[in-house]
Amino acid sequence: MDTSSALRDVVDTMADWDVAAPHQARALSFKFTPSYGLHLVVHYRTPMCSTKQFGSPLSLHHQCQRRHFATILEAGIATSLPCGPLGMIWVRLKPEAAMRLMGERPRYFLGAGIGLDDIFGARRVALLTEKLSEAATSAERFSHMRAFLLSSLRPNRAESIVSRAAALLRRDPCLRVRQLATRLDVSERHLCRNFGAMFGMGPKQFARIARIERVLSAWAQGATWADIAYANGFTDQAHMINDFTAIVGVSPAELVRMPI
């Protein structure tokens, strides 16, 4: 969906899953792979339960998700399973602008499910949930979610070096740290130190995750693994597989064979 002009620089994607029939909802599962984006999840019906996996199924970790939370998945695979009627608004924020909504550095959300009540206040989130549950269409729910986000938006300050670096890496994850520092007119040490303080990872790891997202996007569009490796700056297909496995926990071929 299109966001308003005021949110365009902050919100990357917004989606609504609306499955009111319990038996239909329980037949679904949602798999999430590592992403540089900060994700906001609001359940307006029954919250889902989730598992997180890295590598073999023996490393599965089960947990019941909070009803409304924010998170960044930096490694592994998260699978969410509906426990009843499903109603979920999902928003992905652009990493370079997430602080304008969250008021916290993205690194605090790495691998954590931080409740939206703690960020925006329980009363405001409860009112939003009520509006979402009463809405008859996705268009109405998107409208309520946009209004909530707009009311939470902080003033746009001068763009920091780190924010500019993140935006550049999203557009071109093949950029080397030295190239990035040169383009931003800072030292590599200064860039890496401040980037880590903001995102909880260095620019190199951020770029690796961005490339993994591109790999999955290209595969979904029907490209071959060899073509994907070449197009995304890997030295060869083996290099892509090794990098992918180190972050996701399984190879690309293993991931796409998993049931959805």
UniProtKB/TrEMBL annotation:
Residues in HTH araC/xylS-type domain copies: 159-258
Superkingdom of this protein's organism: Bacteria
Keywords, ordered alphabetically: DNA-binding, Transcription, Transcription regulation
Key word Transferase present: no
InterPro entries the UniProt entry points to: AraC_XylS_family_regulators, HTH_AraC
Protein's name in the database: Helix-turn-helix transcriptional regulator
Lineage: Bacteria, Pseudomonadati, Pseudomonadota, Gammaproteobacteria, Lysobacterales
